[in-house]
Amino acid sequence: MAYPLGVREGLAGGTARALEKMLIDLQNSSDNKALFMDIPAGKFWYCCRAQFPNLAKKAFEVIVPFLTTYRCEQSFSVMIV
């Protein structure tokens, strides 16, 4: 979900059809495409949370573990130096 404009399949769960419809709506929005190109993925999903709350929640479930792991590794690297 870091690049939502290219995802077409692979959504699982009870609300898969609703999420897929939201994803199609997101992909067809020229405003959201422009926004995505201008800001980082985390900030993009934060901005989209009002319009696509369930989709943004799923995106954060995927993105947040990587961001926190990166920051943790970054902190350890600074401590070692």
Indicate the topology.
Blueprint: H1 16-27, H2 30-38, H3 41-48, H4 53-80
Helix pairs in contact: 3-4
Structural description of this entry:
- The protein has 81 residues and is an all-alpha fold.
- It has one domain (16-80).
- The protein contains four helices and no strands.
- The longest helix is centred in the C-terminal third of the chain and has 28 residues, at 53-80.
- The protein is elongated, with a radius of gyration of 15 Å.
- Ends apart, CA distance between termini: 34 Å
Number of helices: 4
Topology, number of strands: 0
Assembly type of the chains comes to single chain
Tell me the strand percentage band. Answer: under 5%
Q: Key terms for this structure?
A:
81 residues; mainly alpha
Give a quick precis of the structure.
The protein has 81 residues and is mainly alpha-helical.
